[in-house]
Amino acid sequence: MAAAAAVSLRGAVLGPRGARLPGARAGLLCGARPGQLPLRTPQAVSLSSKAGLSRGRKVMLSALGMLAAGGAGLAVALHSAVSASDLELHPPSYPWSHRGLLSSLDHTSIRRGFQVYKQVCSSCHSMDYVAYRHLVGVCYTEEEAKALAEEVEVQDGPNEDGEMFMRPGKLSDYFPKPYPNPEAARAANNGALPPDLSYITRARHGGEDYVFSLLTGYCEPPTGVSLREGLYFNPYFPGQAIAMAPPIYDEVLEFDDGTPATMSQVAKDVCTFLRWASEPEHDHRKRMGLKMLMMMGLLFPLIYAMKRHKWSVLKSRKLAYRPPK
C-alpha cells in the first residue's frame, strides 16, 4: 500500500521520505491515486494566499502596526497625571560598607551612631522596639549596657501600696520615650509627630540612603519658594517642607573614640545604627547564607550522582516494536 504524501509549506508535495513527487503541485489532496483529477484543499489555498502578499503590502502592514503601537504609548503617557512625588529629589546610592554579599555592619560605627541617637535624636524621636539588652555583644559589653540602662529612670509598679514608683533602668527595659503620648509630641513640635526610628530605614524608600540625604540635604529654598514659619526646605523630603530643624552639624557632639564629628560622619554613623536597629539579624543572615552555600557545594556532587544513578536507567532505556510474524 503506497504511503500517503504530505503537503509542505513551500508549495510542493513530498513523498514518504521527503522526495518531491514528479508532476505534483501545491494544493493536491494527499493520497490521490494516479490518474485521478487533482483536488485543492482550503488549507493549501489559504496558505498560498497568505504567502503571496506583495512586498509593498507587508511594508504597509508593518508601518500601520508601528503607528498603532506608538499612538497607544503616547496616549498612555499623556493620560498619566503628574505626581507630586516626581518633584522630589531622589537620594543617590552611597557605597555603604555593609552592602557587599559577605560584608557585615561596621560595629564601631554602630556604637558611635547610638551615641548620636542618645545625645541628638532621642530628645524628639522614640525607638520603642529596641532594648538595652540588644546592644550587648553588638557595640557594648554587658557591663557597659547595664551602666547605660541605669542612667535613665523608668516608671515601674505598682508597689505594695498600689503606687507607681521610679527605678533605675535595667537591660530588659526598652529605650525611654521622649513624650508620654502622641498628643504631647505634636504639641511640642508645632503639630508634627516625630516618627519612631526603630524601623525607619526599612520603612522609607531608599533606606539609609534616604536618611543620610535627608540629614545632610538642608539648604536655602530656591527663588520663588516660600515656606511658612516653622518649616525648613529639604529637597529629599516629600513636599520639600519639613518641620524638623537641621539636627546635625559639624562638631555637634564629641565621639568617645576621638573620631572627628563632621556632619557627614555623624550622619553616616547614625544611619548605620538605624540600619542595625531595623535589621539586627543582618550579620547573622549573611553568615548563615555563606554556610548554606558551602553546604550546598558539598552536597551537590552527591545529589548529582544519586540523580544519575536513579534516572539513568529510565533515560537510556530504548523501546523497540517487533511485529508479530
TrEMBL record:
It comes from the Eukaryota. InterPro entries: Cyt_c-like_dom (IPR009056), Cyt_c-like_dom_sf (IPR036909), Cyt_c1 (IPR002326), Cyt_c1_TM_anchor_C (IPR021157). It is found in: Mitochondrion inner membrane. Heme c binds at residues 121, 124-125, 244. Keywords: Electron transport, Heme, Iron, Membrane, Metal-binding, Mitochondrion, Mitochondrion inner membrane, Respiratory chain, Transmembrane, Transmembrane helix, Transport. Residues 108-260 form the Cytochrome c domain. Binds 1 heme c group covalently per subunit. Its main location: mitochondrion. One of its GO terms (molecular function) is electron transfer activity. GO terms for biological process: mitochondrial electron transport, ubiquinol to cytochrome c. Pfam families: Cytochrom_C1. The chain crosses the membrane at residues 59-82. Its cofactor is heme c. Gene3D superfamilies: Cytochrome c-like domain (1.10.760.10), Cytochrome c1, transmembrane anchor, C-terminal (1.20.5.100). One of its GO terms (cellular component) is mitochondrial inner membrane. Belongs to the cytochrome c family. Component of the ubiquinol-cytochrome c oxidoreductase (cytochrome b-c1 complex, complex III, CIII), a multisubunit enzyme composed of 11 subunits. The complex is composed of 3 respiratory subunits cytochrome b, cytochrome c1 and Rieske protein UQCRFS1, 2 core protein subunits UQCRC1/QCR1 and UQCRC2/QCR2, and 6 low-molecular weight protein subunits UQCRH/QCR6, UQCRB/QCR7, UQCRQ/QCR8, UQCR10/QCR9, UQCR11/QCR10 and subunit 9, the cleavage product of Rieske protein UQCRFS1. This is Cytochrome c1, heme protein, mitochondrial. It comes from Ursus americanus.
